[in-house]
Design a protein that fits this description.
By secondary structure, the chain is of the alpha/beta class. The protein has helices spanning about 10-20, 35-55, 60-65, 90-105, 120-125, 160-170, 185-205, 210-220, 225-235, 235-250, 260-265; strands at about 5, 25-30, 70, 85, 110-115, 135-140, 150-155, 175-180. The chain is built from 11 helices and 8 strands. An 8-stranded mixed sheet has the order 3-2-1-4-5-6-7-8, sandwiched between helices. Bound molecules: acetoacetyl-coenzyme A and nicotinamide-adenine-dinucleotide. The site of nicotinamide-adenine-dinucleotide has 27 residues, from helix 1 and helix 4. Acetoacetyl-coenzyme A binds near residues 140 and 145.
Length: about 280
Amino acid sequence: MKTIMVIGAGQMGSGIAQVFAQSGFDVYLNDMNEAALNKGMNNIEKLLTRAVEKGRMTDDQMAETLNRLTPSTGLEDASNCDVVIEAVVENMDVKTSVFKQLDEITPAHTILASNTSSLPITEIASVTNRPEKVIGMHFMNPVPVMKLVEIIRGLQTSNETYQAIEIITHSLNKTPVEVNDFPGFVSNRILMPMINEAIYTLYEGVASVEDIDTVMKLGMNHPMGPLQLADFIGLDTCLYIMEVLHEGFGDSKYRPCPLLRKYVKAGWLGKKSGRGFYHYE
Ligand code: CAA
Ligand code: NAD
């Protein structure tokens, strides 16, 4: 397991590619959108430069890490890879289309992993001819900082695939947690209803954006308030996850807040679009 591809060079994909390259893997970072790919590569360079400035990495180590990263706009490069990690938008149709192509392009031994936040791994696996080699590898944002990787077993994921991903997770200096395939897994089943409730709290006029976040930061010692965290994750991603929980459990307690829908419709996607619950430069 030496060469990997990350598909989607957004905030998650670029972080995942960086962490693998820093751990000695050869990495293709792929995006269908060249501007997004350049932004992802620039972001990695910026974070590595900061690590050098802070004395956590030498100039040589930074150069070696960058040398291990190859930008790519075509999925064909996946034919050289032992593991592919998909980190495109949280939408089942887009993900299954990527997995169908990967199943044709990659050699039989290649493990196909998804960084999905909430979508069923079993359903993604079902569009391939290798469901035993399909698995969820769910990193947390920001990837270079957060220690957790949720590893999700689809119904047909083999023990060999699980063990290979567990070993890789340790080699990235991260902590794996094994989770079964249920909507939102563990992380977002618990986190996202809290964020949705914070948005309802704003929608119902209980308190201002800043005050809701202050309550959770100072009152519960959360590093970010839930509205700031929603902006950081991306409001589109939050809405997709709430929709998966709502549909997957069929329970009205997961109903996405209308204010969340409104913001996403307006293109207020949080930090990445410059406006969400807060304004960004
Ligand atoms: N990318 C990479 N590194 C980052 C970063 C980013 N976006 N943001 C901050 N960092 C690094 C900084 O470089 C800094 O490291 P150094 O001091 O060594 O340079 C370190 O993190 C701390 O940063 P700051 O001092 O600027 O700020 P902070 O103390 O407030 O920490 C934070 C920033 C780590 C993001 C912290 O606010 C935090 O933990 N927030 C909550 C994050 C969280 O809950 N993530 C999970 C989201 S849910 C998810 O990921 C699952 C999903 O499916 C949606
Ligand atoms: P993002 O919008 O920042 O990036 C997605 C990238 O995928 C974009 O650059 C887009 O151009 C690219 N893309 C879309 N379709 C593609 C395709 N067919 N082929 C190649 N590239 C394609 O999104 P993100 O926040 O990085 O989220 C990516 C995935 O990670 C989602 O499944 C999300 O649920 C999951 N996730 C997100 C977070 C978070 O906090 N944002 C945390 C954990 C997991």
